[in-house]
Amino acid sequence: MTKNIMIVGVGGQGTLLASKLLGEVLLRQNHDVKVSEVHGMSQRGGSVVTYVRFGEKVYSPVIDQGEADVILSFEKLEAARWLSWLKPDGLLITNTQEMEPMPVITGAAVYPGNLVEKMRAAGARIIAKDFLAIAMEAGTSRAVNVALIGCLSLHFPDIPESEWMAAIDRVVPEKFRELNKKAFSLGRKAAEEGTNA
Amino acid sequence: MKELMLGNKAVARGMYEAGVMVVSSYPGTPSTEITEEAAKYSEIYCEWAPNEKVALEAAHGASLGGVRAACAMKHVGLNVAADPLFTISYQGVNKGLVICVADDPGMHSSQNEQDSRHYAQAAKVPMLEPADSEEARVFTKRAFELSEAYNTPVFIKMCTRVAHSQSVVEPEERVVPEQKPYVKDPTKVMMTANSRNAHVRVENRTHDLVAYAETCDLNRVEMGDTRIGVITSSTSYQYAREVFGDSASILKLGMVWPLPEKLIRDFAGKVETLYVLEELDPFIEDHCKKLGLDVHGKDTFPVCGEFSQNLVRKCLGMDTPKTLSIADAIPGRPPVMCAGCPHRGIFYVLHKKKLMVYGDIGCYTLGAIAPLNAMDLNVCMGASCSGLHGFNKAMGASGEKNSVGVIGDSTFMHSGITGITDIAYNMSNSTVIILDNSITGMTGHQQNPTTGKNLRGDPAGKVDLEALCRAIGFNRVRVVDPYDLQAVEEAVTEELAAEEPSIIISRRPCVMIKGTKHQPPIQVDASRCVGCRMCMQIGCPAISFKEKKARIDPTLCIGCRVCGQMCRFGALPGKEVTEA
User: Fold this and answer.
1) Which residues of A touch B241 (CB under 8 A)?
2) Which of the residues A48, A170, B6, B401 has the least number of beta carbons within 10 Å of its own beta carbon?
3) Cβ contact (<8 Å) for A115 and B326?
4) What number is the average pLDDT over the span B52-69?
5) Which CATH architecture has domain B517-580?
6) CB of B132 within 8 Å of any CB in chain A?
7) What is the pTM assigned to this prediction?
């Protein structure tokens, strides 16, 4: 059975590293894996999405509406944007950080309030945490991606933590490794502490 | 060992394994990584050419010189390379020549949605179309073998979802074939009798390639339930398998030009209802119809846009998965110019002066988006110069005094030089602004002939833009700093007023280039901010508005101080002379 994970966020937030780490770990578990994203225009502060699919044999490189087992969201509005991609019994892990898009900055649109509550009311199972604060605790705001992967890792009970650390060793340049491992551990710990925002 | 590999990287891997020695390309999403990844192999000479026509000619030249060579481009790049393509098809190759072209269904990063397969048919050049990364690697190697066996360039056709998806690849070793000596052959000069003979050879070649297509392993039949049969290729094959599993039979075409006849007829004869599942134009479908087959294609699936598994399900009247939703409208998040982007000041001034702005292809196309709204038109690489010239020939002074062309440094080198030559030679009083940010930005920071560095970042020749424009015939060539709004406004006003054509070079390196000096982020003096929102008019993502005051995000602000020049109340620090 193919499993579907979506990583969504804002261009520049480091979603590519997150998908790379995830792909590395899954490949080592002898899964067939496909990771799909779009480069170019979308990276300039726009909404970005990466599809990660794994299983015995993966065909389509993309995940469609109602198909995601997990959505890992780097920003709250993006979680709401991609909500309809989540399976009704899927899991949404979201950073509670808010980043205003240009239409909100210019006053042409409003950033909706209470998004997490509304998505829960719609039936979504949600872990919502301030992963920016967790990343800052690890030492840099740029480690939001790895902190989120740490949280996600707990939902793969068959994959030991050491496998994730080994993937960080392979993917992350040496001088940022310790920092990223710390962010990973803090993210994983945060997930252990429960699912309430 | 198995490796997760981007489709484009797998093409580069295929080139490496095939012993390719020369790659010449022009960047363009979604093809750029092919050449960037090829350049990571020190054994391959790789370069960014000024445009796709030059790239193809250079790669073909290398093939004639006796080594395997390749070039890569996006779909619209192939329009530029079409001129050499059609005649290279006649002239043939010496060592293998492969042209990688990447289509962009859904237009994630393109100005149109053209279907490159028509070029294969029109230029009579075989085209292979991989459906995942492993096929991208294997097909690329095969393309070189076909190129040499049939004396033809060969296309590898990618699309966004194959180019930018990572899937599992099993790399093999590099094998470098022997260099083939160049031997002078008078029949290679493409004129009169030679070309006539070459055309006959090309027609015979296509005939031979059809025979190859009938039996080659690039095309394969996967029989399942025979009530439904699907002829498909590329990523559409993946959607077909996703939707049908084994509940349909599939003919997967890895070679989409020339197309087999018997193979398709035989497959059609084994199934009850036959569909062709292909993105964009009914290319395979038309071929089937020409064979007299009863087939469903664009009567069921759309011509426009990308496919997905749900789209296929919906078109066939199948159920799609249940979804969750909330009632709120979710504001869009369009891409924006980066904080500190040197293009911002220019577009603010052009918007303020209410000019007709003929734009071009690059990051600066974002100048069309609110709140800058400063672009009227764009078409293709270079049209800002030549299109403006024609516009002004029609409008006379009312056009000339109120319009500008805007073009980036890389786009200018690609196709702007001939356009400004039209302006100078045929004397329209046009004003063109070259946005020189010392990089090819939108495609992910590639070097170009104006940057003084080559693809690998090593020192290279450097075009002197001012001298070039003067040599073409522009007496009025001036350089401005786009962080200085007053200087920009003066330059634009004066050059539009001048009674001869002008070039304004707006010079500031892209803030995203490694090593570009950033100033400390500025701070809002809240006691002075009256909440007039003037600073919001430049559309900087670092500025937001909270509790009736402007707020600066210090993680985004790079201290360009353009916003400070908008503030009349001294709440934001204004212009400070900084080095570009």
Assistant:
1) 59-60
2) A170
3) yes
4) 98
5) 2-Layer Sandwich (3.30)
6) yes
7) 0.96
